[in-house]
Structures are given as structure tokens and as C-alpha cells.
User: Fold this.
Amino acid sequence: MQTFVPFDDLARGMAALDTKRLGKQRVETLQVMRALTIPDYGWRHHPAVAMWRGHRAALMVYQDLTVDEWLRRGFADTTRASTLATLDEIPEDTAEYRSGTVRMPPWFGREDVHRSHRSNLLRKDLEYYWAQGFDDPDDLPYVWPKAEAD
Assistant:
């Protein structure tokens, strides 16, 4: 499970993803949202969940941009509505999301995080991501930051 954040510009990051990974991001984002919202849901302790803890509204923005890019590429989507329905279970997070002023997690913008994601994407499809301008080493481990506690 992973939510790839190769840049501190989410739309740019989604546009850079290969189609296979972009499609998976929609489903994995829904799973992360459920893990952050539904008690006893699987994956609650996964690092990809921990990095978004306390920032469900920001995760919904991530999902919106992921789905927007997916639709731009000509595919259909069923995950946005499900992700939003899960967000709606926490009214204060829905209010933040709908306000248009969303707090990003404290790790967002940290180059070590974004660089580790680019490196891991290079490992998954070197030629594609080189063509996207990724010039990072392809052997960096993931940096798994933590957000704040719920």
C-alpha cells in the first residue's frame, strides 16, 4: 500500500504517475481513508496510513487530484464517491475539506519524502520515470513520516 507523493504539487505528482500506478492510487487512497476512519479496519498501523493520520481532508484532496487525472486520461471512476462517503463519517474533516482551506500533513513539502517516492517510482519503471524527468537515485528507501495522532 502506498500513496505516492513525488512532488509538493499534488496535481503535478498525479500527472507524472504511470497509468498502472495512478489507477492503483485511487483504490489505495480509499483504503487509507477507511483505515483512518473505520475502527478495526485493516491497515490501521501501516506507514502509508500513519502519514495521513489527522489529515483526512488533505487525503481527500489527494484523491480528488488522483481521480481528476484518471478521468483526464479517459477512464471511469467509482472511488471518489466512496472516499468522500467515508470522509463524511467525520463531520469536522468534511467541513475542513469543503471549506477549501485544508491543512496538509507536516511532512508535505519535505524533499526527503518526495525524493524517496521518486526513487521508488524509478525502481518500478525506470524508463517511464526517467522520461518524466526523475533524476534521483533509484535505490533510496521509503521515508515514512508520521503525521499527528487522531
Observations:
- The longest helix spans residues 19-37.
- The mean pLDDT is 96.
- DSSP finds eight helices and no strands in the chain.
